[in-house]
Amino acid sequence: MLKVTKPFNQLLCILVFSGVCAFSVLGQETPDNQSSLISSEGIDYTPLQEDLQRQQWLRANETTSNLMLQSVGRQQQGWMTQDDVKKFSCEDLKIIDNLWKEYSQGRFGFTVQFPIFVETGNRPGRLVDTEAYDNFGTRIGWRKDGQWVQFKYNLDFSLEAPVGHLPNPRPAYQITGGRLNYTALTQRMVDCGLVAYSDPRRPINYEAE
Prior knowledge:
Blueprint: E1 2-3, E2 11-16, E3 20-26, H1 46-53, H2 57-71, H3 82-86, H4 90-103, H5 110-119, H6 130-139, E4 143-144, E5 147-148, H7 179-191, E6 195-197, E7 207-208
Antiparallel strand pairs: 1-7, 2-3, 3-6, 4-5
Helix pairs in contact: 1-2, 1-4
């Protein structure tokens, strides 16, 4: 019998692929004061907190996109390259993720999306195939009737949306769901320690019970 020894509040281990633990979402503290919402990059995430507190999900999604662009100095362009995503500030990424999880009662957030991304056959930092990413999009409601929803006002901006539905900060012109940038983002989550991931094809050592 396999045994996971870390406390639940530190590590959430999901068993997939015939009992192989492929990933885990690491516990994080939610920012609880004003200073914790200003990153070392000088980005103030108070507007995002305010949008989320009011459950203004559409506005919060747009604020997330704008703040991410501000963090990488791409506001004028209005979009990020894969290299921008790969170098995105870990601190900023954690603040964004924590805020979304806190105010959505755990339904939304990048690390909420990550397990679904892996379960549907995808791998961080590597586009396995378009079908796997399409399946991910379907699971979290970014695709309907076999097509990517027309971004962005056709998304479901409510707590009735599928788990992981938000945030979705892709530019409007990325009609395929922005799969290259999002796959880079999942690798950034791993690199920043928001999640832990092990390739399920590699053996993992567990402590026996």
